[in-house]
Amino acid sequence: MTAQPRPASRQRWLIPVLVVVISLTVGIGLLARELYRRPEAQPHEPVVTDSPSPVAPEAQPGSPIVEVTPDVFAHPQYQSVRQVLQGYFDAINFRDYPKWTSVVSRERAKTKTSSEWKNDYQSTRDGSILVYRIEPGSPGTLRVLVAFTSTQDVDDAPVYLPEACIRWRLVLPLRLESGSWRVDTTDGGTSPEHERC
User: Fold this and answer.
1) pLDDT per residue over 124-141, tens digit each?
2) Region at 140 (left for phi over 0; alpha for psi -120 to 50; beta for the rest)
3) What share of the chain has pLDDT > 70, as a percent?
4) CATH number of the domain at 60-196, please?
5) Going by C-beta distance under 8 Å and a sequence separation of 6 or more, which residues neighbour residue 175?
6) Domain boundaries in the chain?
7) Which of 12, 80, 94, 124 has the CA that lies 20 to 30 A from 30?
8) Predicted local distance difference test score (pLDDT) of residue 55
């Protein structure tokens, strides 16, 4: 008795079916991975808004994350300007003088020793930070209109506004140094707008 060969038609459809099943399994696995992937923690994720979010008096000064207006978000220097300003305000909020000197110009860093700087900002907390506009200055400089709220001990507040909570609106000059933007010294020609919270 001789063995009969298996029908060739059965083997022909088995391979394509296996290929389809394996492809579907891989595809579904990749899709599931994308859908269920936990977002990576991104501290200081940018927030785009037209105006600062209202903050209850007991929650002042508000979020320490630098927010920007849609106009600033569309600016070609948006990322680098936001990054240097975030570093600037983080340095103040965390009393980190070395960090501060890494985001300010060499000229500005010379204006304060570590002990003077720490004394000036010993009780300061900055928040509700919103960048309204970025404008070009002289070559290698930018002018950034920013508003923020600071809280501090009344004894550490400016002598002309001895308040525990102050809303500021000012132009911060930025200078390009060693390939990155740094907060520069103010020229003294413009005074910041300020009011009690």
Assistant:
1) 999 999 999 999 999 999
2) left
3) 73
4) 3.10.450.50
5) 105, 107, 140, 141, 181, 182, 184
6) 60-196
7) 12
8) 82
